[in-house]
Write a structure and sequence with these properties.
With about 375 residues, the protein is an alpha+beta fold. It folds into two domains: about 1-45 and about 255-375, no CATH class; about 55-250, no CATH class. Helices cover about 50% and strands about 20% of the residues. The strands form three sheets. The chain has a ten-stranded mixed sheet with strand order 6-7-5-8-4-3-10-1-11-12, sandwiched between helices. Helix 2 packs antiparallel against helix 9. The radius of gyration is 28 Å and the shape is elongated. The two termini are about 25 Å apart.
Length: about 375
């Protein structure tokens, strides 16, 4: 009976009316999903840049980003009291301009480079690896000579492309080289790096670090992705820790949590106002169909069930269309930060929460509209 009533109501209006409702719902859902995915992408940029999607405590100096940080290996090891059980991954970051494009240079341990391509390193000290996506953008290949300009030391360099590597990670948008050459681009000396990462799979290691900071060992699971800031004044080492290093770096770019909250609440207000209004309009449009159903003996509960079923169909179609539009938008409009492509990331939880909230608000509006037409 429910399916039969649903068919009667659906056929009572032209497809254009159905499309208009779905289009309006799609627009609001697209707006909601876009704001979620944009902030996810921005936060993921720093997580991927420094941690590669893994967990760890990032050790940095007080800087606007990991690209401008400078730390000394001696300070890091002194803080960790030269504990040999702790695995520390040092990285040197720099920025160079190549063919009018700002590019990240990542300096890594040469042992890692040998594991990638040992033969190419025989080309000399000016040997660099170029990620696959970046090589495509720069239109370069193995053996090409690149003219690099470092804004940190205001000097230009010539480097040879050892190889183009498909890292299958964010490194595909970067230039990768050894520590020494990266330090030259950055303008820092031997024993200095941009960041160090202590990977935190071992909770005992993490608890040891927390004890060094004067924190409770029970806090260990809460700081698996934290930022530890080391500062040296007159030979004295001081430190501070923040539990979300990506949030700290984004705040230093001027995008504070308050700004994010205002943006989210603005979108939320639009959705809260828009969804019930659309929901309230649906029963009014189908008023004649509902009256006919009542005249032929269809119960009040069945009509409400049919209305909610219709809304669920609308919302399911609108959500699918919103996700499709978001995917198409991300393919058409390439967002880049330092030659890194930012992809609009949506988590299943974001989609579920958005769908559930919007469906609930639309149903509330529809029930209010249905009560109004019953009074007529």
């Amino acid at each position: 009976m429910l399916l039969k009533a649903l068919k009667i109501v659906a056929k009572s209006l032209s497809p254009i009316i159905h499309c208009v409702f779905i289009a309006m719902l799609t627009m609001l859902l697209f707006l909601s999903l876009a704001i979620f995915s944009s902030f996810n992408s921005l936060y993921n940029f720093y997580n991927e840049l420094v941690l590669g999607g893994r967990e760890g405590i990032v050790i940095s100096s007080y800087a606007i980003s990991p690209l401008t940080s400078i730390i000394s290996e001696s300070s890091v090891r002194s803080f960790l009291r030269n504990n040999t059980d702790i695995s520390i991954e040092f990285t040197v970051f720099s920025i160079v301009y190549v063919k009018d494009r700002a590019v990240v240079v990542r300096g890594v341990d040469e042992a890692l480079l040998y594991s990638v391509d040992s033969q190419s390193l025989e080309l000399g000290d000016s040997c660099i690896f170029v990620g696959k996506r970046l090589a495509k953008k720069l239109q370069v290949g193995k053996g090409d000579i690149l003219y690099l300009y470092s804004p940190f030391i205001k000097k230009s360099f010539l480097a040879i492309v050892c190889n183009v590597i498909d890292f299958q990670s964010q490194l595909d948008d970067e230039i990768v080289t050894g520590y020494e050459l990266a330090r030259v681009f950055r303008g820092i000396g031997q024993g200095y790096y941009s960041v160090a990462v202590v990977h935190t799979k071992d909770l005992d290691v993490l608890r040891y670090i927390l004890e060094q900071l004067g924190l409770k060992p029970s806090d260990a699971p809460l700081v698996r992705r934290a930022l530890l800031i080391l500062m040296s004044y007159g030979g004295n080492l001081s430190y501070g820790i923040d539990r979300d290093f990506a949030e700290i770096y984004i705040a230093r770019l001027g995008i504070h949590r308050e700004f994010v909250v205002v943006m989210v609440y603005t979108i939320a207000i639009l959705v809260v106002l828009g969804m019930p209004l659309i929901g309230e309009a649906i029963p009014r449009v189908f008023k004649n169909s509902f009256l006919i159903l009542k005249q032929i003996g269809v119960s009040h509960r069945l009509i409400i069930a049919m209305l909610i079923a219709l809304l669920l169909i609308y919302m399911a179609l609108a959500t699918a269309l919103a996700m499709l539009c978001l995917h198409s938008f991300s393919n058409l409009v390439k967002l880049e930060v330092l030659s890194h492509e930012l992809y609009l990331n949506l988590y299943p939880l974001d989609i579920f929460v958005t769908f559930s909230l919007c469906t609930f608000l639309t149903c509330i509006g529809a029930l209010m509209g249905f009560k109004d037409i019953e009074k007529l």
